[in-house]
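One thing: can you check what follows?
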Amino acid sequence: MTEILTTHAGSLPRSPELIAANAARPVGEDGLTPAPTDEFREVLRQAVVDVVAKQREIGISLPNDGEYGHLMGSAVNYGAWWSYIFDRVSGLELTGSDHFSSEPVRSAPGDVRLTTFPDRRDWTLFAEAYQDPTSGITVGSQPTFPAATGPIAFSETGRELIGQDITNVQAALDAAGYAHGFLNSLSPGSGSRINDDHYGDVDSFLDAWVEVMRPEYEAIAAAGLTVQVDDPSIAENWDQINPEPSVEDYLAFTRKRVDAVNRALVNVPTELTRFHLCWGSWHGPHTTDIEFRHLAPLLLEIDAKYYSFEAANVRHEHEWTVWQDVELPEDKIIVPGIVSHATNVVEHPELVAQRLERFARLVGPERVIGSTDCGLGGRIHSQIAWAKLESLVEGAKIASQRL
């Protein structure tokens, strides 16, 4: 029997103790969080031990630290996957202007530009629903993000913090009896979505983020851990371009971000690389998402062994058929989302099995790893999140037996 392995996209619900410890940390004048105290480090270390042990108890095959090293000071937080990097990069500061308060930006044929977050096409199309607190749409709190006001670089604090993440997860993996795990890291393209008040050129700013992220990728891989590059920008940027561009213009714009990932990963072994694509984890209509069929060939140009993507939420579940037409290279593995962060309904194990079987019959069960659409931490209640992972593991066992 070929066992279908299980994993998740990265973020897991934080413990109340860790949330409280994060919330209690002071914020400096630059808007960033200073180096952690010894007391905080101990809270974090124990939380990582516990979350890895919980994954082992449930039966998750390929675990991580739950992204616990990415600061999250509240139970609901959609942005920690991104905002964590700001404490690790020099050259950033709060300027009073960001993607939420800036003026909208308009694109033209051959000139694709990202507009502001409130000017997203999904948000404007459903403005009434987004502004209605009873609609069920949630996007999380919208803090002020820093801008680049000087040359940016991966800082000494960044090196200390990724070192802390590596030490914590390695100890937790050993304690739980795992042979291997992964850590999440931001993509250059996603990093470059903050405001640039220094470089003055989109491509130059993207190049700078390549140099920023490379040391974090290399540190993770050098420790023998898998690097998961989180890059919603590959798909999510489509919704943040106004008016809607042509697919050709968008793919040209996106190919630069794919190239940026590959340049940042140049010294990382392919077998130690996962890439995560999603359309944004906020709970909204998502009617303006770009179709996966346009992105799948581009996704395979990324120098990774594992490709993680949303495949369980109701906007994208039907797109499993893409793999009927797109040939997966023999040395690659897909990591489709089988349970979703976008609903509080816990997927039945039988549904999990059916979803896994669809992919396994197209590419082979040995080249499918069952996962989550996106991170569960900060998006759904912890009790529901762990129930979803339990269902994922149970469904993978059913599918493995059938196949």
User: Anything to note?
Assistant: The first strand starts at residue 5 and ends at 6.
